[in-house]
Write a structure and sequence with these properties.
By secondary structure, the chain is of the alpha/beta class. It contains nine helices and 16 strands. The protein binds flavin-adenine dinucleotide. Flavin-adenine dinucleotide binds at residues 9-15, 32-35, 39, 41-46, 111-112, 136-138, 140-142, 162, 164, 202, 204, 243, 245, 263-265, 269, 274-278, 280.
Length: 344
């Protein structure tokens, strides 16, 4: 049986942030993930300046695709509004693998199935033993299932259903577009360009509300894809995949003895825009600090409203206009749009 002081189940942003913090403090830590990285993660890959700060990311040093938006284009019915603020896009396929490797923690590919409390620690699938266990396995995290589900049942009214596709596409419009409540969708749809000719498009909305309106997400997707095909993404072909996760509701118990839940496992995405990367990172860091310093593990202020973060970015942007350098062209020579520049 392999032993480690801390085992983290899941190597996404929550798991890799916790791993990096623990590793830097000299703790013995092992990450288990059922996938081999780089792995596909359905996500628009939109990250905020807060995420960049919390991860201590030097944007100029980041070795993969990164695009900076000097504004968001927000659409509601016939109204279209450019919102000047700084946001970024990355490809989760690349970014998650980079974060996990940067953590310096050993990673084993293992699909966790069974967790048993044993003395003051845990045994996983009869093959791994640890004193501290961090659940960072996303919506279907086995740590949540085994140790927290009964204490924190998920609120179905906060379940989000999504469809999205990330494709190689020579985009012409380098802005990030968001359409709210299009065709009655209780949520929003997005167009998020990535550096060097990649593009993520998708839709997400409240599962129960879509169902109770007698609709389904596929009908909304068909409408969205047709709209894109007439304008922003002429000639593109989509084969979208779906994923479901939970927005922040009541999360009463996030630590049980020496076990913690973080990120999507705890259901922490923001209530307004379903932004889950920031809360995943913050909760991962707090779990690590609770282990290192014996501090209480509290998530009261982990999930903010995304619009507050956008407003903060608008103010920063107004005070300090973007000074771009190193604009990049799409790989196929397409037009340069997004900006690559120093930390914001
Ligand atoms: C379509 C879509 C678009 C989104 N867009 C955005 C966005 O633009 N910006 C944003 O901030 N948020 C977005 N989100 C939310 C964001 O993707 C998540 O909140 C975030 O990835 C949560 O991170 P995490 O580390 O908790 O979990 P994850 O990133 O899901 O990582 C969990 C890891 O656990 C592993 N795992 C799962 N089960 C097991 C097991 N049994 N054994 C071992 N390993 C296991 C998985 O392989 C995975 O690597 C989006 C979500 C969706 C579905």
């Amino acid at each position: 049986m392999r032993s480690s002081e801390v085992i983290i189940v899941g190597g996404g942003p929550a798991g890799s942030s916790a791993a990096r913090r623990l590793k830097r403090a000299g703790a013995e830590v092992l990450v288990l993930d059922r996938e081999r990285f780089p792995r596909l993660k359905l996500c628009a890959g939109w990250i905020t300046p807060e995420v960049v700060r919390e991860l201590e990311m030097d944007l100029d040093e980041y070795p993969h695709r990164l695009l900076t938006f000097p504004r968001l284009k927000v659409h509601y019915g016939r109204l279209s509004l450019p919102v000047p603020c700084v946001q970024h896009s990355i490809r989760r396929f690349e970014w998650d693998a980079w974060l996990l490797e940067r953590s310096g923690a050993p990673v084993e590919q293992h699909n966790v199935r069974e967790i048993v409390a044993d003395g003051d620690g845990y045994v996983i699938d009869g093959a791994y033993r640890c004193r501290y266990l961090i659940g960072a396995g996303g919506t279907r995290c086995p740590v949540y299932r085994h140790l927290f589900r009964e204490l924190n049942p998920r609120a179905h009214e906060l379940q989000i259903v999504t469809l999205e596709h990330e494709i190689e596409y020579d985009w012409r419009d380098g802005d990030c577009h968001l359409w709210f409540c299009d065709e009655g969708l209780p949520g929003y749809s997005w167009y998020v360009p990535k550096e060097s000719g990649w593009l993520n498009v998708g839709i997400g909305g409240f599962a129960e509300r879509i169902k109770s309106a007698g609709q389904d997400i596929k009908t909304h997707w068909a409408h969205f894809a047709a709209k894109l095909g007439e304008g922003l993404t002429r000639g593109a072909h989509y084969d979208p995949s779906g994923y479901s996760y939970f927005l922040r509701g009541r999360v009463d118990v996030v630590r049980r003895d020496n076990a913690f839940i973080t990120g999507d496992a705890a259901g922490l995405a923001s209530r307004d825009l379903g932004e889950g990367i920031g809360p995943a990172i913050r909760s991962g860091l707090r779990a690590a600090e609770a282990i290192l310093h014996g501090a209480p593990y509290r998530l009261d202020d982990v999930t903010g409203m995304s619009v507050t973060s956008i407003a903060r970015s608008m103010l920063t942007r107004a005070a300090r206009p973007l000074a771009p350098h190193g604009r990049r062209r799409a790989s196929n020579g397409g037009p340069a749009h997004g900006l690559r520049h120093g930390n914001q």
